[in-house]
From TrEMBL:
<dbReference type="InterPro" id="IPR016160">
    <property type="entry name" value="Ald_DH_CS_CYS"/>
</dbReference>
<keyword id="KW-0520">NAD</keyword>
<dbReference type="InterPro" id="IPR010061">
    <property type="entry name" value="MeMal-semiAld_DH"/>
</dbReference>
<protein>
    <recommendedName>
        <fullName>methylmalonate-semialdehyde dehydrogenase (CoA acylating)</fullName>
        <ecNumber>1.2.1.27</ecNumber>
    </recommendedName>
</protein>
<dbReference type="InterPro" id="IPR016161">
    <property type="entry name" value="Ald_DH/histidinol_DH"/>
</dbReference>
<dbReference type="Pfam" id="PF00171">
    <property type="entry name" value="Aldedh"/>
</dbReference>
<keyword id="KW-0560">Oxidoreductase</keyword>
<dbReference type="InterPro" id="IPR016163">
    <property type="entry name" value="Ald_DH_C"/>
</dbReference>
<dbReference type="InterPro" id="IPR015590">
    <property type="entry name" value="Aldehyde_DH_dom"/>
</dbReference>
<dbReference type="InterPro" id="IPR016162">
    <property type="entry name" value="Ald_DH_N"/>
</dbReference>
<feature type="domain" description="Aldehyde dehydrogenase">
    <location>
        <begin position="19"/>
        <end position="478"/>
    </location>
</feature>
Length: 498
């Protein structure tokens, strides 16, 4: 098979760049190298940023009516051609096709939210704040903005940001993950087809060098980053030190509490879906199941019942769960299972020897359930990012809450109970940004904002929703005197209202 080269997208067209550095792109279900992605050098990065900078003045001045019509066109094209994008995601990420379609639909919801931008950008107006003086507020775009995204949602995560950024009048440089870069180019082509002017949406392929240039370039006004916690922290500190507005979403270790009064069938279904969906490579995956009181034995049995028939295999063959993204990642996740076993956890379902429905060279690891996990084990302390669900047994609700609140991550969490009072207490007391009540993956709708607490987000603005609009604009307050603009003559005192 000949490998294709995946380059950048600049000024409405493909751009090869001058760098001779590339990285392999593989199909995780076959282990085959299917392409090589360009890794930008400094000149490439600067060329992409320059395109976004020169497109900004005209796009900023483009009417809201025109911007909105392009967003609607983009939404229609995306909706009608999402199968193409899903196939690209499955081929490079490995997640099963239905899951890939799910991520596109969640991204599309942000496009739909951004279609309402004229309403979202309305400012305030105060007539006669002082005699014959009016005051009003407007929100204006920042300029060219940088978006740096992770491998696990090559379409949805960029779409958390770019529809809102573009709708607000900014131009974009997207730096996708080098593991699955093709979705970004497909999205760029779609924008062109939707009528977006050249240079408004650009793609810069690359690694740390490209990221560093985005963080340092004076032209780039903000950074929206999603990825692992150490890189999020680095991006936040470097970006803000360079005077940029930064939102940097990091890693996660999501807990679900199951109380003794919960519907255990519902909870077991939810644990399997949230633990093993997308092979656990979701920042909202449940990786720690906190079983309260005497609930664990029955719950573990129900989870085993549901896990055993799951089919791990090629995402194009109707499997339940696909491979992990790379061989190195597959081996790392398997090594955590080894470590958990050595530390004394019980391996109730072992995915290490899975018979996958797929090429033997695929990066397979089946669903894995570990019981009697304790908080000091590495399988509990670290973000594993694989299909490994750990059961931690505790005596009381308070023990469970303490465990979650002591955890350095705070992305998502869930409680399973039939007790409204317990659920309400949990939503109030838990130190986590997104909370599910009998819902295992509480990803907020586009018109709410997505974001975690603690080491799961650096910065104070969550993604999309009104927080997204706020992030991609800055406020201006105007004080105006019209009609009979009489002045009071010379007066060096501070202006007072009358
Ligand atoms: P990653 O941190 O390795 O990479 C993310 C991005 O940073 C990529 O574009 C990558 O090219 C770039 N990058 C990698 N190393 C860099 C470096 N040293 N300097 C500068 N840039 C660098 O993350 P990943 O493995 O692609 O994605 C998985 C991680 O993302 C998990 O930790 C997951 O929890 C997290 N994630 C978080 C959320 C959230 O909403 N909080 C959502 C999705 C994924």
């Amino acid at each position: 098979m000949t490998t294709n080269t995946i380059g950048h997208w600049v000024d409405g067209k493909p751009f090869a760049g001058t760098s001779d550095r590339t990285a392999e792109v593989t199909n995780p279900a076959t282990g085959e190298v299917t392409g090589r992605v360009a890794l930008a050098d400094l000149d490439d990065a600067r060329a992409v940023i320059a395109a976004a900078a020169s497109a900004f003045p005209a796009w900023r001045d483009t009417s809201l009516a025109k911007r909105t019509s392009i967003l609607f066109a983009f939404r229609e094209l995306l909706n009608s051609r999402k199968d193409e994008l899903a196939a690209i995601i499955t081929a490079e990420h490995g997640k099963v096709l239905s899951d890939a379609l799910g991520e596109i639909s969640r991204g599309q919801e942000v496009v739909e939210f951004a279609c309402g931008i004229p309403h979202l950008l309305k400012g305030g107006f105060t007539e006669n704040a002082s005699t014959k003086v009016d005051v009003f507020s407007i929100r204006q775009p920042l300029g060219p903005v940088g978006i740096i995204s992770p491998f696990n949602f090559p379409a949805m995560v960029p779409m958390w940001f770019f529809p809102v950024a573009i709708a607000c009048g900014n131009t974009v440089v997207l730096k996708p993950s080098e593991k699955d870069p093709t979705a970004s180019i497909w999205l760029a082509e779609l924008w062109k087809e939707a009528g977006l002017p050249d240079g408004v949406f650009n793609v810069l392929q690359g690694d740390k060098l490209a990221v560093d240039e985005l963080l340092e370039s004076r032209a780039i006004k903000s950074i929206s980053f999603v990825g692992s916690t150490p890189i999020a922290e680095y991006v936040y500190s470097t970006g803000t030190a360079n005077g940029k507005r930064v939102q940097a979403l990091g890693g996660a270790k999501n807990h679900a509490i199951v109380l003794p009064d919960a519907d255990l069938d519902l909870a077991a279904d939810a644990m399997v879906n949230a633990g093993f969906g997308s092979a656990g490579e979701r920042c909202m995956a449940i990786s720690a199941l906190v079983a309260v009181g005497d609930v664990a034995d029955d719950l573990v049995a129900k989870i085993v019942e549901r896990t055993t028939p799951l089919r791990t295999g090629d995402g194009t063959r109707g499997s339940d769960m696909g491979p992990l993204v790379t061989k190195a990642h597959r081996d790392k996740v398997a090594s955590y299972v080894d470590a958990g076993e050595n530390d004394g956890a019980t391996v109730v379902v072992d995915g290490r020897g899975v018979q996958a429905d797929g090429d033997p060279n695929g990066f397979w690891l089946g669903p894995t359930l570990l019981d009697h996990v304790t908080p000091e084990m590495s399988v509990y302390t670290d973000e594993i990012f694989g299909p490994v669900l750990s059961v931690v047994r505790v005596e009381t609700y308070d023990d469970a809450l303490q465990l979650i609140n002591d955890n350095p991550y705070g992305n998502g969490t869930a409680i399973f109970t039939n007790d409204g009072g317990a659920a309400r207490r949990f939503q109030n007391e838990v130190e986590v940004g997104m909370v599910g009540i009998n819902v295992p993956i509480p990803v907020p709708m586009a018109y709410y904002s997505f974001g975690g607490w603690k080491n799961s987000l650096f910065g104070d603005t969550h993604a999309h929703g009104t927080e997204g609009v706020h992030f991609f604009t800055r406020g201006k307050a105007v004080t105006a005197r019209w009609l009979d603009p009489s002045h009071g003559g010379i007066n060096l005192g501070f202006p007072q209202n009358d």
